[in-house]
Amino acid sequence: QVQLVESGGGLVQAGGSLKLSCAASGRTFSWYTMVWFRQAPGKEREFVAAINWGDGSTYYADSVKGRFTISRDNAKNTVYLQMATLKSEDTAVYYCAARRWGTMSPLISDYDYWGQGTQVTVSS
Predict the structure, then answer these.
(1) How far is 38 from 86, CA to CA, in rounded Å?
(2) Which of 30, 96, 109, 123 has the fewest CB atoms in 10 Å of its CB?
(3) Which pLDDT does position 106 carry in this prediction?
(4) How many CB atoms lie under 10 A from the CB of residue 48?
(5) Mean pLDDT (whole number) for 65-72
(6) Share of the chain above pLDDT 90, in %
(7) pLDDT reading at 1 higher than 90
(8) Does the pLDDT of residue 54 top 90, yes or no?
(9) DSSP state at residue 31
């Protein structure tokens, strides 16, 4: 079992930056592929970025590539999402999720553990 708690959301102006964190419980965090999804009002939840459990490779949605960076600190059981050059369309609730030993996937159904989400609002 893994419990995930996101933090770092807030209100930021367009063009600004924000860093989200997702802290995980447990002693085997390094075994989990970690991912960020987001859900805007009235829209479906969508994939944002993933980081592999083994080699730390990363994978991004086209909409955030070059602006967002996902990283992890296994010693701190934490995954991060550094967001830069934010746009109004990045406004959403951001969720982290985890799957043990799994490959990176953009599919919601592939992830077993979810956080409660953190709100990011980008004002134009």
Answers:
(1) 14
(2) 109
(3) 96
(4) 25
(5) 98
(6) 94
(7) no
(8) no
(9) G
Cα 68 to Cα 3, 31, 100, distances in angstroms: 24, 23, 23
Q: Are 101 and 113 in contact (CB under 8 A)?
A: no
Q: Give the angle 91-120-107 at the CA atoms, nearest 5°.
A: 70
The average pLDDT across 73-100 equals 97
In this prediction, residues 10-14 reach a mean pLDDT of 98
In the three-class reduction of DSSP (H, G, I as helix; E, B as strand; rest coil), residue 15 is classed as coil
Closest by CA to 64, choosing from 38, 43, 44, 102, is 38
Amino acid identity at 26: G
**CA 110/CA 11 separation, integer angstroms:** 30
**Closest listed residue to residue 83, CA positions, set 15, 12, 18, 7:** 18
**Token pair for 14:** 């367009």
Here the tokens at position 120 are 């990011």
Q: How far is CA 75 from the centre of its chain?
A: 18
8 Å CB contact between 51 and 82: no
DSSP 8-state secondary structure symbol assigned to residue 102: P
